[in-house]
Amino acid sequence: MAFTSKTTSILSIFILVSSFPSLILCASKLRSLPLPSVTGPLAFAFNSKGAGPYTGVGDGRIIKFLGSKTGFVEYGYTSPIRNKTLCDGTNNVELATICGKPSGLGFYDQTGELFIADSIYGLVVIVPGDQVAKQLATSAGGVAFRLPDALEVDQSTGDVYFTDASAVYNLSQTGDLVNSNDTTGRLIKYESRTKQVSVVFDGLSAATGVALSKDGSFILVIELLKTRVRKIYLKGPKANTSEILMNFSGTPDKIRRNTEGDFWVAVSISSPSVRLIGQKISGNGKILETMDLSPQFDTTLVTEVHEHNNGLYLGSLDLNYVGVYRGFKTYLDDY
User: Fold this and answer.
1) Side-chain half-sphere exposure of 272, counting CA atoms within 13 A
2) Is the link from the previous residue into 295 a cis peptide, with omega within 30 of 0?
3) What pLDDT is recorded for position 24?
4) Which H or E run contains 86?
5) Which residues touch 146 (CB under 8 Å, ≥6 apart)?
6) Alpha-carbon distance 295 to 325, whole Å?
7) pTM, to two decimals
């Protein structure tokens, strides 16, 4: 979620440290991918060729990684009125209405379109060859978006699932949100064929993460305020119903599926001391692995743990680099 750094101290009220499963691994040496004079790489995407990561950063730009020698370069931006002089390098929430604030993103591999959930501009898309995103949706069910957050693209249809973390609180009010009992978050679907937007599920408690199952039969949604993940059935005999899949002993943020069909959840613990972990879970709620990211990943919150090519890419609110654990290989490293 695109929280401000001031929010981190408030999150501690949601944390109660408890024991984790026996499979707890310490992450290997951290590799840092420096950002170009900007902070806040919240979430990641890779294109159909495996190139990336692409990430949205605090100043409203989408940047892409071109390998170790070149590093990150600008790919596009979400705001149609973005002022480069004013915005480049900033992480000032008060400027987000001008600069944009991308929070979740994902490619539709068939077309190369990059869909983005922007906390200010709603659902937008950057088509190949363009830099400025096109706005697709700003409301659903007659209710305007207040805090678009996570996003997932269904590769079989091109439909886009994304969350509006709250229907009450906006980006500048995230401190109030985490100190509330808000249950106005929604899971929303954009149908690529009809261009229609619909509410899939509402009543969510700060919906900050979304991940579609490999077979498309269910979708997992993080409820940050309740520190849990909800399983929403899309197909089969349980379609249009949901259940609480599991609760976390910390504050979860984004959730991403890997190629095997399991899911990585970014979890932050702030009491009695800061501890950041990635937890890999199955679609049935079994904890498969707990990866300790501290203390090398030196921040107070981890926003996303994204597995790609045997690497774990780590997102944050205020760091000036992307963290990568485990084996590491980029698409362009061999060229």
Assistant:
1) 1
2) yes
3) 56
4) helix 84-87
5) 164, 165, 166, 167, 168, 169, 170
6) 12
7) 0.91
